[in-house]
Amino acid sequence: MMEISRNKQVIAISVGVLVTFWASSIKGSYQVYFLDLASMCGLGRGVFSLTSALFGLSIGVLSPVVGWICDRIGPALTILSGAIVATFVYLLMMLSFNFWLFLVLFGVLAAYALTAMTFVPLALLVDRIFDHQNKGMAYAAITNGTAIGFMVLSPFWVWLNTFLTWQDVSLIIFGVFTLVILPACIWLCGVFPRRAFVSEATPDATEDDLKWHQHLRKPLFLLLALSFGGCGASMAYIDVHLVPMLQERFTEGEGGATIVASSLSVLGAAELIGAFVVGYLLRFSAPALMLALLYAVRGASLLIVLAADNFILCMIFAVLFGLTYMGTVIVTSLMCLKAYGEKVKGKIFGCLFTVHQIFVFGTVWLGGLSYDATQSYTLITVAVTGLCFVSVATGLVFYFSDALKEKPQSQMASSS
To answer: How many CB atoms lie within 10 A of CB 340?
Structure first.
């Protein structure tokens, strides 16, 4: 691992938090404006949900591509490319709107932008500049911009939704990307140039590049992928179906918008806390056991929201789900790094995100179709809950299998 000064590590964390914070606006604004966008297109939820389903599937297809790009040009330039594409997308969105244009802009280009600005390149950046014992905490910190986005931006979008159109919101998002995010990404590229990440290649790197895909057929990857599928399905449920469900459930009460905004804000606050708690506990706990526990809590939270008919139950759901939100990504990233090493981790983690997003695609689209058929979100909620408990089982398989058993980070650091 390269020697990195503390100042550069602070810059990486600061810019990473800023980028993930505003990148969350891509999904957050869509989430709140989902019903308005469907109405603008004159489509039902089942058909219009194809936009977010394609968005999720595109992230899955593009994740290994982004991993490959990271391995070639480094994470900083990859993040900059995502910011540039996002700026272009929202420039076009504020100028024109129709279903097919939106399908391409949001479903494909915005998907690349979000992928290139978040988990895959940030995981590689953390892997390269932090020592092993601090990776979990650093990854929790650098991705917590997403949690802050839930806390701050989600209520902001709910408020704007009461008086601004989608084009107006697109103008706001475009302006921040242009004036704040792009300069920050350019600064990050100056601090961590391409040569800092690609000059460390060893003679074995080419051989590793040729053989990395062989791991995709092995039980370790397949179990990791199945586990990560529960993460994708549950995140898709939150990103697309939660807000419409709460909006309908509390539509007759005067405080409906308050319940929706509070749920998202509390979920974000719990996510912020949960990521640091998981990052800290990983120093002392087996990652596989931590993974199983996180999915168990997440599954329990979905059972609660299934019956939530008041403010208190919605807050309990938000706290429990939020505490697990980023933890599953952090733990899976560390398990992937330990299993495959730094040389090909970008590609393997990208492939895991492909599976993650296939589950996103299925959850988003089938959730919309099931609603159109039953006028209820019960079926999709039960299905996602079941997938979470399948992920609990895979985590326990990792923990109790001698071949796949994980050690706490403190043990791994001391043994190395």
So the answer is: 20
Task: Identify the architecture of domain 8-196+211-415 in CATH.
Answer: Up-down Bundle (1.20)
- pLDDT of residue 227 exceeding 50: yes
Structural contact between residues 313 and 364, judged by C-beta atoms closer than 8 angstroms: no
| Distance (Å, whole) CA 267 – CA 317 | 8
pLDDT at 252: 56
Non-local CB neighbours of 26 within 8 Å, separated by 6+ positions: 86, 110, 113, 114, 173
Q: Which residues of 164-191 are buried (b: 16+ CB within 10 A; e: fewer)?
A: eebeebbbbbbebbeeebbebbeebbee
Mean pLDDT of 58-64: 83
User: What pTM was estimated for this model as a whole?
Assistant: 0.73
Q: How far is CA 375 from CA 45, 301, 305, in A?
A: 10, 22, 17
User: What is the rounded distance in angstroms from the CA atom of residue 260 to the CA atom of residue 314?
Assistant: 9
Q: Quick one: how many helices (H) and strands (E) in the chain?
A: 22, 0
Q: For residue 86, which of 192, 197, 187, 185 has the smallest C-alpha distance?
A: 185
Q: How many Cβ atoms sit within 10 Å of the Cβ of residue 39? A: 11
Q: Phi/psi at 98 (nearest 5 deg)?
A: -155, 165
DSSP per residue over 290-343, as a string? Answer: HHHHHHHHHHHHHHHHHH--SHHHHHHHHHHHHHHTTHHHHHHHHHHHHHH-HH
Name the nearest CA neighbour of 127 among 309, 397, 414, 348.
348
Question: Exposed, middle or buried, 309 (CB in 10 Å: 0-12/13-18/19+)?
Answer: exposed
Q: What is the mean pLDDT of residues 312-339?
A: 88
Could you tell me if 149 and 117 are in contact, meaning their C-beta atoms sit under 8 angstroms apart? no
Specify whether the CB–CB gap between 167 and 93 falls below 8 A: yes
Q: Domain-by-domain residue ranges, the chain?
A: 8-196+211-415
CA gap 374, 330 in Å, rounded: 36
Residue type, 82: G
Phi and psi angles of residue 42, each rounded to the nearest 5 degrees, phi first: 70, 35
Q: Is the pLDDT of residue 25 over 60?
A: yes
